[in-house]
Amino acid sequence: MNSALATALDAQSGDSELLAALVDHGVFVPVQASGSVLFAKDADGGPAIPGFVSEACCAEKLPQAAGAVHCDVLRLLDIAKQTGVEMLSLHSFGGWARVPVPLLRRTMRERGRDAAGEWLKLRPSTHALAIALRQALVRRIAEFPAIRTVWVSNARWHDTGMEHLMLHIAVDEPIPSPSVKRLMDVLLAEEVVIGEEDPQLGTIALNTRTHAGHLAELEGMGLDPVRAPRPKRWWRRS
Q: 161 pLDDT band (50/70/90 cuts)?
């Protein structure tokens, strides 16, 4: 359950709290028996992508749905892109809100998160902070078994020209990833110090199965990956 989003919807909180909860934890999207998204009707009569704070909430509010699938923000944007539906309709047990997809995209940009390169130009970075991050990752990545690969790159937004450092993190666990949060906590508390003159730092977690396409794009960009060490194989001679 996305309890943060439920709290924001129930309290009719402002856009910033609601969008933060949505971006960080995703929602449950109803599906039909065929597995396709069960769209809702928006206030203006057009289609909307419905999102619920939990499977139980979806079952109560939309009993005709065959089930609900957890979608992180990248999957929501992918649904919007593929279907052309540009409105989200979010529901908790005690509240609801409409969120235009363009507002969600803007929030992603402001928080330094994106897919593998649809809005970003990624390239290797030789900035001192990027080097320090890669060195720290080499030392610490083995402590987080779910994390497979991390790319540290310079990211430039196509629309604004703004640049910052970006960590794309491939992880073998559902998103939002607790391993990614713990890794970043360790890096920023014990390994690197971000000074006032350093670039901003953004992160995005990518599931190795769900976001396989995005990860394949990253692999082909010529970035410098830090990979988790492979387990040693022990061979016994006969």
A: low
